[in-house]
Amino acid sequence: MATTSEPADRLAAFGNQLVDVHLWLREELARLREELDSFLSGAGTRPRNLRAHCLAFCSALTRHHTAEDRGVFPALAQAYPDLRPVLDELARDHVQVEEILVSFQALLDTLPAEPMSDPDPAEVRRVRGELDGLVALVESHFTYEEKKLVKALNELGTPLPDDFALRDLTGR
């Protein structure tokens, strides 16, 4: 059961927490890209934790979006009714991101266990294209969300789910 952060106890405003989580997720996504590029180039070995890293990243992103959909967005909609169209759009983004995450995880599962000494250019383009699509959508989503919600979140006095801040994963 998720606990909540009480406004009087929080060290950072909710909008700042959103930016912190997004920064951590961006860092993890960049690290995932580096690991995947190393493997696909044949220059390195498959990172032993590539699949685990992907699963951890995907799980963290899904938990963050679920906390937004179930706790943060309803609180914002109640406090700021004019944000409802933005919140609806962001919720639709969450569905698209989840679909790409599932597809990307399935694609990673098809990669061989050993380094690709002579990688098929079409396969490399397909894997990188899938990751590029994920990165583009996530970056666009994060930027839009930060632009539209940080001020309102920083003013919000409603307790929010701890999953929103992903404290157990980010250490922040």
Give short descriptive properties of this protein.
mainly alpha, elongated, 172 residues, two-stranded antiparallel ribbon
Structure explained in plain terms:
The protein is an all-alpha fold and 172 residues long. It is 72% helix and 2% strand. It contains 5 helices and 2 strands, in the order βααααβα. The protein has helices at residues 14-41, 50-79, 84-109, 121-155, 167-170; strands at 4-5, 160-161. A two-stranded antiparallel sheet has the order 1-2.
Summarize this structure briefly.
With 172 residues, the protein is mainly alpha-helical.
SSE topology:
Blueprint: E1 4-5, H1 14-41, H2 50-79, H3 84-109, H4 121-155, E2 160-161, H5 167-170
Antiparallel strand pairs: 1-2
Helix content: over 70%
Q: What kind of sheet is the major sheet?
A: 2 strands, antiparallel
Which band does the percent of strand residues land in?
Answer: under 5%
Number of beta strands: 2
User: Which stretches are poorly predicted, pLDDT < 50 over at least 5 residues?
Assistant: 1-11
> Radius of gyration in whole Å, from Cα?
18 Å
Outline type: elongated
Compute the separation of the termini in Å: 20 Å
Please give the count of helices: 5
Strand order of the largest sheet: 1-2
Order of helices and strands: EHHHHEH
- Mean of all residue-level pLDDT scores: 80
Q: Which structural category fits the helices and strands? A: mainly alpha
